[in-house]
């Protein structure tokens, strides 16, 4: 084989490698934009449903697509295409309205036109109290972030969706609010950790439909203790095996 033949072979091999890498990157971009996006839980606002260190997949097509569906939210168009409304009780990733560079995750409590209010820790939707019953206590700091037992209440929304909420303290700042009237094409979001959640009661405000990124579906990995998934030497003591492949409800 001549030197020229060897050079063409090396060049051809390099070109094929670059082509495969570019195709893989393009496929990953398509999957992330239109199908699934990984998301990590950065705070305790959705405890006990979601914990810091949970890693989950978000379904991107659940509510259609907006420009926030794309990486870096390029202003390609306004509104949503192939849009559909979230259901009350869905756990949703969305762009923080005051700063769309930030991702938040909360539960949809109020739909357009709803009246939402908290009275003495009780959730009211359109003037009616949401079913709420105490189901016990949790005494596990990994779940509650508290070094004492915490009361757990089961809420059931008008459409039948049920989930657990934490009550860290009585008469907290979010336990009594004004009545919020949800505007058209907006949603009212709340965290399940009611006394430790920055949500629509506070600075988040009403979330525009355009800001929805997707619905949280399944936890694919979970690690405690502030560990990174890359710190494999910490897996034996920190990985929460019981949470892996749990559906988000």
Automatic annotation (TrEMBL):
Membrane-spanning parts: 20-39
Gene Ontology CC annotations of this record: membrane
GO molecular function: serine-type endopeptidase activity; signal peptidase activity
One record GO biological process: signal peptide processing
EC number: 3.4.21.89
Domain of life, source organism: Bacteria
Pfam families, per database record: Peptidase_S26 (PF10502)
Domain Peptidase S26 span(s) in chain numbering: 16-221
Residue ranges the record marks as coiled coil: none
Compartments in which it is found: Membrane
Keyword DNA-binding: no
Membrane topology summary: Single-pass type II membrane protein
Catalytic activity: Cleavage of hydrophobic, N-terminal signal or leader sequences from secreted and periplasmic proteins
Catalytic center residues: 45, 106
Keywords associated with the record: Hydrolase, Membrane, Protease, Transmembrane, Transmembrane helix
UniProt enzyme class: hydrolase
Family: Belongs to the peptidase S26 family.
Classification via NCBIfam families: sigpep_I_bact (TIGR02227)
Name of the featured protein: Signal peptidase I
């Amino acid at each position: 084989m001549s030197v020229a033949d060897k050079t063409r072979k090396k060049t051809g091999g390099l070109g094929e490698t670059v082509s495969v890498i570019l195709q893989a990157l393009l496929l990953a971009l398509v999957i992330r934009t239109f199908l699934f996006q990984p998301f990590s839980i950065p705070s305790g606002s959705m405890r006990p449903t979601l914990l810091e260190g949970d890693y989950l997949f978000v379904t991107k097509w659940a509510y259609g697509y907006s420009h926030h569906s794309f990486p870096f939210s390029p202003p390609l168009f306004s509104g949503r295409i192939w849009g559909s409304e979230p259901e009350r009780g869905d756990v949703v990733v969305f762009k923080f309205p005051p700063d769309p560079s930030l991702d938040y995750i909360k539960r949809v409590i109020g739909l357009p036109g709803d009246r939402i209010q908290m009275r003495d820790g009780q959730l009211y939707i359109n003037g009616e109290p949401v079913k709420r019953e105490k189901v016990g206590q949790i005494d596990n700091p990994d779940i509650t972030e508290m070094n004492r037992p915490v009361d757990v209440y089961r809420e059931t929304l008008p459409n039948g969706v049920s989930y657990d909420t934490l009550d860290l303290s009585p008469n907290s700042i979010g336990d009594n609010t004004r009545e919020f009237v949800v505007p058209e094409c907006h949603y009212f979001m709340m965290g399940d950790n009611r006394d430790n959640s920055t949500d629509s009661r506070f600075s988040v405000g009403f979330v525009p439909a355009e800001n929805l990124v997707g619905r949280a579906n399944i936890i694919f990995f979970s690690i405690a203790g502030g560990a990174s998934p890359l710190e494999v030497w910490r897996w034996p003591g920190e990985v929460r095996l019981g949470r892996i492949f749990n559906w988000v409800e």
